[in-house]
Design goal:
By secondary structure, the chain is an alpha/beta fold. The protein is built from eleven helices and twelve strands. The radius of gyration is 21 Å and the shape is globular.
Length: about 375
């Protein structure tokens, strides 16, 4: 029987560099917060209250509207045990779900593989940004990575490529450039296939901007451009189910107040515009956005900023999200801190498991490496 139900879609937005949980979801009535942060604490009268204990950073107004509309879940105290407080190692753990060994497969790559086991759609997973995040890396699983959608697609700017026959000839020539790498070892074979997949993806994805119209005016910022590009590809209905992008750096060791302010001004507006864009096209019911960062920051400020910490916050936004608080805000009492940091109380693999099973309809256990507590935000 025919169905008009669309496949579920996930947009992952990585806040690279360790976003400061305490200055994002602010415990503005907690004396321990102000005792620990004489330099970077946000005054209570500037906070956008959620309730009588915590509130949003004052630069998160556009996102607060999504919260007020019941479309945003806040996952408190997220992380894992024995945080190494290293950007590279911690992000690697989030990317591979391997806290005890150095993993080689990305969790999102495994998701794409399970969504499209035969690799029939090279656009099943698309990254927007430079390079390819390790979360998406999985040998044999095609992923398209786009730095600039407007100029992406090697054939889209070639004059005179109109006839299908000529188009196919050029495509074949590019494919031949990659073919010598095949059969010369696993690494070269992988690169050769990746090259051909990228070529094929570029050829398909170039249609997205041509089909797109919107009255939403995105800001001229990197994150706004990436989210606009995601909206264009999503609305083009090319079968993509996992989008990935990132913003930062959130590594606020120095001069944190203006730095963090700018980051959240740009992020909040871009996210709000993205969901306004989807609403304009009546196209948001099968999409959720997941925001995460590798760890939070230390409770005490260092005079101008904050150093690497542990427990943090993640967010899930979408029309089908059951908005509210999930898990609990870790204690700020000095005796409850671990090496001066918030103690994580919710394993990040539970967040992934919830998205993978409850939203995408896949088995999370082989993807995240075990059974972890799921939440009911979807």
């Amino acid at each position: 029987m025919a169905t008009t139900k669309k496949d579920p879609v996930v947009v992952v937005l990585q806040m690279t560099g360790a976003n400061d949980y305490l200055n994002t979801i602010i415990p503005y009535t907690n004396e321990h917060y102000y005792d620990a942060r004489p330099k970077v604490g946000i005054p209570a009268d500037q906070v956008l209250p959620i309730d009588d204990q915590i509130g949003f950073n004052p630069n998160m107004g556009p996102i607060k509207k999504l919260w007020d509309d019941g479309k945003m879940a806040i996952i408190h105290g997220i992380g894992y045990e024995n945080s190494p407080r290293s950007h590279f190692r911690s992000m690697d753990i989030w990317h591979t779900c391997e806290p005890d060994i150095v993993g080689t497969e990305g969790w999102a790559g495994r998701v794409i593989r399970d969504l499209d086991p035969r690799g029939e759609n090279v656009l099943k997973g698309v990254n927007f940004g430079q390079g390819l995040p390790r979360a998406l890396a999985l040998r044999g699983t095609p992923v398209t990575s786009v730095s600039n959608l407007a100029s992406y697609g090697v054939l889209s700017s070639v004059p005179g490529v109109a006839a299908e026959e000529e188009h196919n000839k050029i495509l074949d020539r590019f494919a031949r450039m990659y073919s010598p790498t095949v059969g010369t070892g696993p690494t070269m074979d992988y690169l050769g296939q990746t090259g051909r997949d990228a070529l094929k993806g570029a050829d398909i994805i170039r249609s997205a901007p041509e089909q797109y119209t919107s009255t939403v005016e995105y800001a001229d910022t990197p994150i706004a451009k990436y989210l606009r590009d995601i909206a264009q590809v999503y609305l083009a209905d090319l079968g993509t189910q996992l989008f990935y992008t990132q913003h930062g750096s959130f590594d606020s060791h120095f001069n944190q107040p203006p730095m963090h302010t700018k980051l959240w001004i740009d992020m909040s507006r871009a996210i709000s515009d993205f969901f306004d864009d989807l609403a304009e096209h009546d196209a948001g019911d099968n999409l959720i956005m997941v925001l995460f960062t590798e760890f939070g920051r230390r409770v005490k400020d260092n005079g101008t900023g904050t150093d690497h910490g542990a427990g943090g916050a993640a967010f899930v936004i979408g029309n089908q999200v059951k908005g509210g608080h999930y898990s609990s805000y870790p204690s700020l009492r000095p005796e409850d801190l671990t090496q001066g940091d918030l103690e994580p109380n919710y394993d990040f693999r539970g967040l992934y498991s919830t998205v993978i099973e409850n939203w995408l309809g896949l088995d999370a256990v082989p993807i995240v490496g075990g059974n972890f507590e799921k939440l009911d935000f979807v």
